[in-house]
């Protein structure tokens, strides 16, 4: 048995979708365990691109079971839109192979309004959320007033919970100068989706246990990245869920001993969307070069991603936080034609060198990166299919990362397509 967790090791958009797609061909079930449609996971197969926000990135591999676990916050409209889009491409999205946990919390229109209202009010101190209602939905879950997918089976319960919620939310929305919402229309709108949605409701933990009992492998698909984690990330510039590997168990209903292999996805440089500290950010021509060469524009919001050099300090932290057993290094091809490559190996903080992340709020914005320079490369590596095909300078860069992190780099991605992957 080798159940595998895929986790972003930086600030998201590392290429998790691509690696999940590849590994799903060897898995019986793929399950999302946190986040929602703030995620945008891209898969490219024979030149055709698919972007998924909620449905697991294993859906393109026929025969796999794709599940949305209890830890996810699910926007019912987005889920059904995604189902329709995939169905129109001839992909099987029937409830036989796609399921939602009855315990997953639903994102409702007032969550989106509150997310956007709060961001608008923050003016110069915006988090830069995706505006998808993620934070407010998790707030309701923690406050024990949330509406869960399984509630769709009981129209009276839906009506009651929405009218109770709006009593409070409308006070807040008015205070933010946002339009209040009508409980009846929110309820009717949701109940109209119930007949299409309820066939997907399932007991995710039992389905996964069944797969395990039959000797099948499970792939846990993380969203966001380790440094967007609500506890361990660059708080308050984080998302509202635990993004680290440990949550793969709690977010699906299996025990931690079910997690055998933890693969951290590491982009060969660093990107970040939204606000928050980013020590190796490049605000110069090199940053623009990475953005253009790497097509660094958000798969969810289309926002330009901030770009910078690889940061081994945050990555060492990710190795520990997630217990990484392997790394998949992505977007190595994007570094082509840079005269030299820099890796941040430590920080200078308060006049001293430190090789860990200072934990006080705001401290990471005050560190200065200490770089190690490695030679660049001019060769096009996007057609390399084996480790031995890669030029020496590229192998030196990869091996140096391996040394700094002390974790095996098991996959090297040299282009967006499924086929552009080297397995070592
Ligand atoms: P995710 O959120 O971690 O799944 O990543 P995204 O899909 O948001 O962003 C990754 C982007 O990089 C997508 O456009 C992918 O198609 C693309 N991509 C993934 N791996 C590679 C790679 O090795 N090289 C290049 N050039 N692009 C890649
Ligand atoms: P994937 O799975 C990159 C960022 C937002 C914002 C912060 C909080 O594609 O890697 P939220 O809407 O979650 O409350 O926003 O988190 N963010 C992501 N950044 N990739 C993602 O997902 C992200 N999901 C959220 O930009 O800074
Ligand atoms: Mg993404």
Model description:
With 424 residues, this protein is of the alpha/beta class. The chain folds into three domains: 4-101 and 201-262, Adenylosuccinate Synthetase, Chain A, domain 1 (3-Layer(aba) Sandwich), CATH 3.40.440; 105-197, Orthogonal Bundle (Adenylosuccinate Synthetase, subunit A, domain 2); 267-423, Alpha-Beta Complex (Adenylosuccinate Synthetase, Chain A, domain 3), CATH 3.90.170.10. The chain is built from eleven helices and 20 strands. The chain has helices at 16-24, 76-88, 109-122, 134-142, 155-175, 183-197, 204-213, 247-250, 285-293, 312-322, 392-405, and strands spanning 4-8, 29-32, 41-45, 48-52, 65-68, 73-74, 98-101, 105-106, 201-202, 218-221, 261-267, 270-272, 306-308, 310-311, 326-330, 340-349, 352-354, 368-375, 408-413, 421-423. A ten-stranded mixed sheet has the order 9-7-5-2-10-1-11-15-19-20, sandwiched between helices. Strands 14, 16, 17 and 18 form a four-stranded mixed sheet that branches. Strand 19 (408-413) and strand 20 form a beta hairpin. The mean pLDDT is 97. The structure holds guanosine-5'-diphosphate (GDP), 6-O-phosphoryl inosine monophosphate and magnesium ion (MG).
Would you spell out the secondary-structure blueprint of this structure?
Blueprint: E1 4-8, H1 16-24, E2 29-32, E3 41-45, E4 48-52, E5 65-68, E6 73-74, H2 76-88, E7 98-101, E8 105-106, H3 109-122, H4 134-142, H5 155-175, H6 183-197, E9 201-202, H7 204-213, E10 218-221, H8 247-250, E11 261-267, E12 270-272, H9 285-293, E13 306-308, E14 310-311, H10 312-322, E15 326-330, E16 340-349, E17 352-354, E18 368-375, H11 392-405, E19 408-413, E20 421-423
Parallel strand pairs: 1-10, 1-11, 2-5, 2-10, 5-7, 6-8, 7-9, 11-15, 14-16, 15-19
Antiparallel strand pairs: 3-4, 12-13, 16-17, 16-18, 19-20
